[in-house]
Amino acid sequence: MDAYDVIIVGTGAGGGTLARHLAPSGKRILLLERGDWLPREPQNWLAQDVFVDNRYVSEDTWYDEHGKAFQPQIHYFVGGATKLYGAALYRLRAEDFGELQHHDGTSPAWPISYDELEPYYTLAEQQYEVHGARGEDPTEGHSSAPYPFPAVSHEPRIQQLSDDLEAAGYHPFHAPCGIRLNESNPPYSACVRCMNCDGFPCAVHGKSDADVLGVRPALEHENVELLTNAQVVKLETSADGTAVTEVVVERDGELERFAADLVVLACGAANTAKLLLVSATEQHPQGLANGSDQVGRNYMFHNSAAVLALSHDENPTVFQKTLGLNDFYFAGNGHDYPLGNIQMVGKSQAPMYRGEKPVQTRLAPQWTLERVAKHAVDFWLSTEDLPMPENRVTVDGDGKLTLAYKATNETPKKELNKQLGSMLGKLRMEPDHLFHRFAYMKNDIPVAGVAHQAGTCRMGADAAESVVNADCRAHELDNLYVVDTSVFPSIGAVNPALTAMANSLRVGDHLLERLGASTAAAAAH
User: Fold this and answer.
1) pLDDT for position 360
2) CA distance 17 to 333
3) Against a cut of 0.85, is the pTM above it?
4) Distance between CA 356 and CA 54 in Å, rounded?
5) Would you say residue 366 has pLDDT above 80?
6) Nearest to 257 by CA among 47, 106, 32
7) Which of these, 38, 140, 135, lies nearest to 89 by C-alpha position?
8) What is the 3-state secondary structure (H, E, C) of 255-286?
9) Which one of 144, 247, 249, 295 has the minimum C-beta count within 10 Å?
10) Rounded distance, CA 253 to CA 260, Å?
11) What distance in Å separates the CA atoms of residue 236 and residue 247, rounded to the nearest whole number?
12) Residues 360-373: what's their mean pLDDT?
């Protein structure tokens, strides 16, 4: 059996980032990825293949609390979910790390503060080549450095929208984008600023994902090894149950076993919980690290909606995901509770609408899907999803994963949608604005939309109410860590990827100290 200093299970925002951070230490590191490299092929950029045929979606079957089967929109590749994410790399607000009152309850405090994570947010922004502009968003926390790259410019239609929102008293800002774009020197730009970015894999590696900017830099070091198509099926523990001794992997139909001084899980909120639950032992009868009965509980995935605003004139925007608005992120503006975040999403294309009920039922017959796409201006609305114990992942004796979920904060979600409609409705009064004869459609994101999944292994100081401590080490196993979004005590109302990356870097420094390695080498990498 091969032995390593560190085994990392999963290569997405948490695992891929950690691998790059640990790689310069010289310690022997094994990365285990259940998927393969995502193929670079013409289908990467074809909406029919990506959004209709689900070419890159896993074949997993999960079940809801009623036993109904569904296919989660989950991706198993080197780089994990970041291979197809929108690369909107927001920081949580400083207030998100404290206790916040919402319409449906309380969002709990984290055991770490924004100040503790801030240096790692800065490092994550540098490693993932984030483009943005400080000072435009009044809700943003303090930062120790500017964004490493200038904000991605708005195209004319979005610039007009930004100008009009600002003139109306709102605070639009350039969204933080993880794209490898060089607008000042296009011949040397990896990103070509195409419309096939948000929700697509990038055929030219122009997206700042955990494959290109995490795993590949890590593999430049001889001490780092990657096994693909290697699904971890169980963790074995010592006789007294205080440490993980073996990681059991199914590869090519055979079981293989690996050992390491430290084992780090980064499988995603649902699958990390599943792995801990199926690894139950005599010492851990409810599952590993589950003496608190919190493993699998407090599942969150954002209460989100995609909104299409239809303008009288065509919208020629190509790369649309450049604008955000947080005026309703906290209580205020006539509300006693937070509403959430508004941002642009990638420009919609006709194939994306196929099978979407709102398009079929709410438009006049002359509105073809192609015409909808040409006239659409596309928004994404996120309201904070509260951690509820009954929203949970469970696994039966056959390994069947059940995700029981009931939405929270429905009222703020509806109010946020009304606010967007009200804002755009007012803007149509401008004589030359895009939204005269305004109409819009909304699609809620179903539970199968797991891109923003979080919770299930929450971090906390009290072992009776959490799964891992502030260092993301399991309370009950000395050498087991978790660095994906499952450790989030709350999810906020912005995309979780950058927080996962930053927290992984923070835990990485702790692991380097524990391994007796220098953090300076990693920080300089």
Assistant:
1) 44
2) 38
3) yes
4) 15
5) no
6) 32
7) 140
8) EEEEEEEEEEECCCHHHHHHHHHHCCCCCCCC
9) 144
10) 23
11) 6
12) 64
